[in-house]
Design a protein that fits this description.
2 copies of one chain form a homodimer. The first copy, chain A, is an alpha/beta fold. The first copy, chain A, has 20 helices and 16 strands. The interface between A and B is large, with 38 and 38 residues.
Chain lengths: 511, 511
């Protein structure tokens, strides 16, 4: 039986419920996601949550409970952050929620919140050293990690809602207001001297960060629909902030990509990012769409240990993808074996100069080449490209995801050319040759297991009279595969400018 | 347990194995498809299959068996057509196949073949009256149906391979050769006087037909990847034939879209279509990618009864799509109820002039609006559009499929505009208003069951003081849905230029 559970994040700006389904293999899939903009930080009066805030919270939680009841879900992980943590009557509030809805809300410490942000990033991004910043409505968490290990963390008691209240009076913030906000932030950051001059990427988490990515992607007509792992320069961030600052709220709401219910508080959020980049002397901001909830999820599903290597993250995310789209694993692993064996033997004979970067791409592509068949066996290459370029494969950059998608879906130069043209902002013409060559390797590897029965169990590349021969060690003579290898081999030979043929070797031949 | 089975079509030009998986609900999915170009018609010497033809057949069938064994499939439906039917030693051949591979091949009569073609078409196309023509390598089957019922059928003992052998000597067929072929075809058709001057669409089945669609779609850069139900005019067919005829074989092979191993026989095939259109005085040719194998499948899965109405075909194909992409059915049916109820009540109040065409589109869209969630809950509208515009929904024309996809995936005018632009060759600007209005109806209907718990069980549209009110009959007060209806209602009101609000009515209120 699949297990369903809900994760509720009662944030200071937004309350959100996410419903997950976990299958027998442990694979977790998000199946529903609903948010309510409660703005609880606005209901903190003299350190207490006011009656309206309490009522809104109870009402919102009751509605979430209704959705969970409708799905027969009793397994609920609920956490609350700054607004409830900071409210004197926070404990009364969680007790009332429990009485009225049965939901047990755990109030996170700032340190917990920071650690969950780090966990979300480290489990889903290819990055060795960085600063995470998660801006919520009423608090802001920062961490610093090196060699993927958490080094420092801190929680500031201000967020986009409270900073907006504190510093911005009118519709359009004044120069002075911005100056005062920046001064306040500098003073605040100085309580974390370990942030100073780190010169490493800043990873931005939370709704403000996702919205920043969306606004920027719209403005440059970015060719992928993915916020996670979206890289921006400090200069791009500053430009967006400068474009939005002089606009009245109504005009700001009309900016393409901006979230309408965030337009009033986004300036404070972007200023925090901008100030942090200055303080840390960083030039790169990377958006993470994984945050608090995902950190909780990683802890629940994988335990608190952060994985030590990006390799493990890759293996996990590829396995999840394979499970999710019901790949025939024996076939996929066999195709991977053949593809990597060819890659390595060509390398041993000094027939290419590729390294581990390209080998990893080929490996991922080989394991995932069949995902499109879930959609339909017809035009499955197109579907494979669609899935790999649209659905998050955690731990890879956008460029890597596209290269994997193109190699996995490689069928013809015509199709590849249209993909390269569409994504010319992410991949470049020089990638064409790489994709073509690895693509033909993969097509051959696939044909070597066309019957999906692992009838050819190993291959050996040998040189014979000016040309190369792939000796295919097979279970029997006359395998289906042998009658299908000529075409992919001819194309491979052409792409690699290398005359290659094959020779069947039956197991009994050698005994 | 899912049942897997293989269907083998030992044709006169091509042998093909298709592997299907049938789940407990009866849904059949194609999971593998492999073909071998055997050209058996070329091996008929004086009415006997020659030794080489026999050897190639045995070898090919053994390879199919290997693939089936690798998948542990023992359930095999194998049929042979003209080449084996016409060979004096056909019976010996099928006996040898049985001895050497265990596969029992059933040799189809020409009448069977014709009927299967008709069954494939009638079960997958929206057409009341038509002529089907299925050209194989060694025979050609025609049928005529009216009111979706089979009226006549016939099998001619010639196909693309044999006609090419008989009439075309050199690389480029001469005018005289074409003239002789056309004369021969006219004489042949005259044995079926029921074909003459029918003036109904000709539905072309088989590899030649699919290749024709591909060539034409390439030449006009058609915006959908779908051959089935692709409509062409007789003039378009004639133009392609005239473009291909003067080319030497090698140049013909380079024509975009042409199948390389069919380039030598395609001229004969296209001439047959062209002659039939003349003979039947038809101006419309519709390509069917469903053929013999699908007819067999329909017979196996649904029995031989052809469905009486397109409505049943639609219901079946929507249900298959829903099963395939694991839709929450209770929710989908509830959304459909709400959407159609709104549609009908607006109609009753004379607030729109739409009819059953639009109502059917709305119904299909409502049932299928969630298919994209199978891919990912994020950006699920985009995925819904991708699936509905890329995966065949049998029984609908291309335009209908796109309209359903656009209504089901409707989220914003921006997204719709990009879809309309991409498919401007199939849908037109005038469709925008329809999609927008039905799209907003559907968005409201979805929100009326946002908790997916059918908490609002019926709705009533009533007029009150110059504006319209939707009374929502719900199980309880304070439903999640009520706090989410304002936005879709405001947008609906704007799109329909109709002020609409809502009023919760709790079940107990009325007692």
């Amino acid at each position: 039986m699949n297990r369903n559970f809900g994760v509720i994040d009662l944030g200071s700006n937004t309350a959100r419920l996410v419903v997950y389904e976990q299958d027998k293999q442990g694979l977790v899939t998000e199946v529903d996601n609903i948010k309510r903009g409660l703005r609880l930080s606005n209901h903190l009066q003299n350190g207490r949550m006011d009656d309206e805030g309490v009522a809104k919270t109870i009402h919102g939680m009751r509605q979430f409970k209704e959705l969970l009841d409708a799905r027969n879900i009793n397994d609920i992980i609920a956490v609350a952050t700054a607004a409830v943590r900071q409210a004197e009557n926070g404990h009364e509030l969680t007790q009332r929620i429990n009485q009225e809805t049965g939901i047990a809300v755990r109030v996170l410490s700032g340190e917990d919140e920071a650690r969950y942000g780090y966990l979300a990033v480290i489990n889903s991004m290819k990055i060795e050293e960085g600063i995470t910043i998660d801006i919520g409505g009423g608090s802001t968490e920062v961490t610093y990690f090196r060699n993927r290990q958490l080094q420092e963390s801190f929680s500031f008691p201000f967020g986009i809602v409270t900073l907006t209240q504190m510093f911005f009076q009118g519709d359009i913030p004044t120069e002075t207001e911005f100056y005062q906000l920046r001064s306040f932030l500098s003073r605040s950051f100085s309580s974390c001297p370990w942030l100073m001059n780190k010169q490493c990427p800043v990873i931005a988490i939370g709704g403000t960060a996702r919205n920043l990515a969306k606004i920027h992607q719209r403005s440059v007509q970015y060719s992928m629909d993915s916020f996670h792992h979206y890289p921006m320069t400090g200069w791009q961030l500053t430009t967006i902030l400068e474009q939005l600052s002089p606009l009245p709220l109504e005009a700001r709401r009309q900016v393409p990509g901006i979230s309408k219910d965030r337009a009033d508080v986004i300036l404070a959020g972007l200023t925090v990012f901008d100030s942090l980049l200055s303080y840390a002397d960083s030039t790169e901001l990377i958006v993470s769409s994984k945050g608090l909830r995902d950190g909780i999820l990683f802890e629940t599903v994988w335990g608190t240990e952060a994985p030590t290597s990006i390799r493990e993250i890759h293996e996990r995310s590829i396995t999840q993808f394979m499970n999710r789209y019901q790949i025939d694993k024996a076939h996929a692993y066999q195709v991977k074996e053949h593809a990597l064996s060819l890659f390595d033997q060509l390398q041993a004979h000094d027939l290419h100069k590729y390294g581990s970067f390209e080998r990893d791409l080929l490996e991922a592509s080989a394991l995932l080449h069949d995902v499109g068949r879930t959609i339909n066996v017809h035009e499955s290459s197109e579907h494979t490209f669609y899935l790999l370029s649209h659905v998050l494969l955690a731990g890879y950059t956008h460029r890597e995801r596209l290269l994997i998608a193109m190699i996995a879906a490689f069928k013809s130069n015509k199709l590849l050319q249209s993909q390269l043209t569409k994504h010319a902002d992410i991949v470049c013409k020089a990638d064409k040759n790489l994709v073509e060559r690895l693509g033909h390797l993969l097509l051959l590897a696939r044909m070597l297991d066309r019957s999906m029965s692992q009838a050819i169990h190993s291959i050996q590349l040998v040189e014979r009279d000016q040309h190369w021969v792939i000796e295919c060690q097979g279970k029997r003579a006359g395998l289906l595969e042998y009658s299908l290898l000529d075409e992919p081999l001819a194309k491979l030979s052409k792409a690699w400018k290398l005359p290659i043929t094959f020779l069947p070797v039956t197991d009994t031949d050698k005994t």
